[in-house]
Amino acid sequence: METDLFKTRISEEGLKATKQREEILNIFMTSSGHQNLAQIYAQVAKINPKIGYTTVYRTLKLLTHLGLATQRKFADGETRYEPASEGSHHDHLICLDCGKIIEFEDQTLETLQNGIARRHRFKISHHRMEIYGCCEECHRKKRMGRRKS
Amino acid sequence: METDLFKTRISEEGLKATKQREEILNIFMTSSGHQNLAQIYAQVAKINPKIGYTTVYRTLKLLTHLGLATQRKFADGETRYEPASEGSHHDHLICLDCGKIIEFEDQTLETLQNGIARRHRFKISHHRMEIYGCCEECHRKKRMGRRKS
DNA sequence: ATACTTGCAAATTGTTTGCATATGA
DNA sequence: TCATATGCAAACAATTTGCAAGTAT
Q1: Cβ contacts (< 8 Å) between A113 and chain B: which residues?
Q2: Cβ(B31)–Cβ(B40) below 8 Å
C-alpha cells in the first residue's frame, strides 16, 4: 500500500494524516487515472458522503505537492489528476470520440526534444506531447455503423 | 489584406461583415499571437473602446470557426488565440521564466507520431507538443545574476 | 424588411478562500 | 495542548448566455 509512503511524506512536511486524506488517497490510487476533480469527488462521495468537495480539492493539491499525484491539462482545459508514476515519463493518446486516454512512452521522442531544444538554445525542464484522434475501438464502431446504413 | 478572405468566408456562412469584426480581425492578425482574450480585448479597447468584451469573445470564436484563428491551451490552462497559419503545423517552446512562446516545426516529430499512432492502432487527427524550460535570454540573465553575487 | 449583431448585465462553471469547529500528533 | 484539517458558504475569475436595441444585406 502506498499509504506508508504517504505517511512518511506527510510527516516529513509536518502535516497530518487524517482519515479523509487516507480515504481519498486510496480511492485515487486505485482509480483509472486522468480524472478531473468532480469525478474524483463523485467517487469519494459514493464511499463517504461526509467528505466535502473542498477537502478533495485540497487533498489532491497536497498529493501533488507530496509527489504522489500529477496534474494534467489536456486540450479541453480541464484539470485532471493521475497517480504519479515515479521515474518514467509518458505522454498521451486521446480519443476525441470516447474520451479515452492512453498512455505511451517513446524514447525517440525524448531524444528528439533535446535536438529541438538545442537548436533554439533552450534549456528543457519537461515537455508534453498529446496525440488526438480516434482509438481502435471507436474506429471499429464507426466502420460497423457505416456498413449497417 | 486577409480582409478579403474574411469577407468571402463570412458570406459563405451567411453571416455579416461588421465594422467591429473587421477592426478586431485587423488588430488580431497583426498582433504577436498567443494572446488570451483579455489581452486581445485590451488592444481592441485601445483603438476602439466602444467595442465590448463579449463581441471580442464572439468574434474570436467566429474566426476560429472560419479557420482564420486557432485556439490554444498551454499548461497554464489559459485560452490563447493565434492567427491560423494555413497548411504547416508547428509546435511550441515555452519559457517558464519570461513566458515567451517560440514556434518550431520539426518534420521528424510529424513522422514519429505516425509510428506511435500505428502501434496503438490509433487514427491521428492532430497532435500538440510543448517543450517547457528556459529560453536563451533568460538563461543568460540567470548566469549574469549568479556571477554578480 | 429581417435576420444577424452588439453590448450590457447577469448566469454559469471551475477553482479558491475565510472562518468557526473538529481533530491528529 | 495547539497547530493543522475540515466543510460550509461565499469570493473569484474566466467564460458564456439572454435580451433589447442597432445594423448589414
Answers
A1: 129, 131
A2: yes
